[in-house]
Write a structure and sequence with these properties.
Number of domains: 1
Distance between the termini: 59 Å
CATH class: Alpha Beta
Largest sheet: 8 strands, parallel, barrel
Radius of gyration: 19 Å
Shape: globular
Structural class: alpha/beta
Helix content: 40-55%
CATH topology: TIM Barrel
CATH superfamily: Aldolase class I
Strand content: 5-15%
CATH architecture: Alpha-Beta Barrel
Length: 316
């Protein structure tokens, strides 16, 4: 298989829904157009995209959703999709559905029900990689699965012709530096950092890509960050990254993943990109939290004038 590794910024796209927990296709079109020509890769059904709360059983709605996002981006972006399954057979079925609909690659997290030994992790990913019809990435998200994929296991799996890389959300500096010492010179295996506070260091040290939830809001700023790093414009890159960290803090500070995704959707609603609705079991932000988010966005001049006027009329 010819390997095309991801480069730059991967956006874990929020999943827009309405108040009835149905896909919101008008908002999806807006988000797709918002991402066009920004140089990003889109990642569907991640944690921030509420993937574990979505039925992936091959329904017509999933097919329509994926077709709609591909159409709304005018096929200008690579699109990946996450798989969160304890059943290897079910994960394989979902992967084949995704590939048949035009998904470029799948990100597969570890099964999270049983505690797994190294041999079990190797067997699970090898089973999938031997059988899927497209490329897959290992997805290490220990704050969700409550277990980490050991680096020696990753290294063994990195030689499989169908495994394209790892998306790593484990937030230790030592793991980052060890990973990059192993793989940054590889042209057949990508390291993708999925840790907010390590984004700048990861790119500077040679990571192929970063996953940036705040790029849902400002995709071009993150692409500019990547370009500045690659051109060795360190000061410009740091200033831009610090600005993005200030924006990220509006919805991430002192929050767990559920609070962060709720806050991010609220911010996107203030930009007119989607509704703040979230999948069960979550609920929208309370009125006090909505006001805090709005006030901080307004203070940072993030809300366009037209949307600010509309919001004032609604709350008047």
């Amino acid at each position: 298989m010819h390997r095309i590794l991801p480069k730059g910024v991967i956006v874990p796209l929020v999943t827009p829904i309405n108040e009835y927990h149905q896909f919101d296709y008008l908002s999806l079109k807006k988000l797709g157009q918002h991402m066009q020509n920004k140089g990003s890769t889109l990642l569907l059904f991640s944690g921030i995209g509420e993937g574990p709360s979505i039925d992936m059983s091959g329904s017509l709605e999933i097919q329509r959703y994926i077709s709609s996002i591909i159409q709304s981006t005018k096929e200008s972006l690579p699109i990946y999709a996450c798989i969160h399954e304890s059943s290897a057979q079910k994960a394989l079925e979902i992967a084949e559905i995704f590939f048949s609909l035009g998904i470029s690659a799948v990100m597969v997290s570890m099964p999270s029900y049983y505690p797994l030994k190294k041999v079990h992790i190797l067997r699970y990913y090898s089973y999938l990689a031997d059988r899927v019809s497209g490329p897959l990435f290992l997805h290490n998200i220990p704050y969700i699965t409550h277990a980490s994929i050991p680096l020696d296991v990753v290294h063994q799996l990195s030689c499989h012709p169908n495994i394209l890389g790892i998306q790593d959300a484990e937030g230790e500096n030592s793991r980052l530096t060890t990973s990059l010492s192993l793989w940054k010179s590889r042209t057949d295996f990508a390291f993708i950092s999925d840790v907010e506070h390590l984004q700048l260091d990861a790119l500077a040290l040679g990571a192929d890509a970063i996953v940036a939830a705040t790029a849902n809001l400002f995709p071009k700023s993150y692409q500019d960050l990547y370009v500045n790093i690659r051109l060795n414009r360190k000061d410009e890159a740091r200033l831009l990254w610090e600005k993005m960290q200030e924006i990220s803090a509006i919805y991430q500070k002192d929050q767990t993943l559920d609070g962060a995704l709720i806050g991010l959707k609220q911010m996107l609603s203030y930009l007119g990109l989607c509704k703040p609705s979230v999948f069960l079991p979550f609920i929208e932000a309370c009125e006090e939290e909505k006001k805090r988010i709005y006030d901080e966005m307004r203070h940072m001049q993030l809300i366009p004038d037209t949307i600010e006027r509309e919001t004032r009329l609604k709350t008047a």
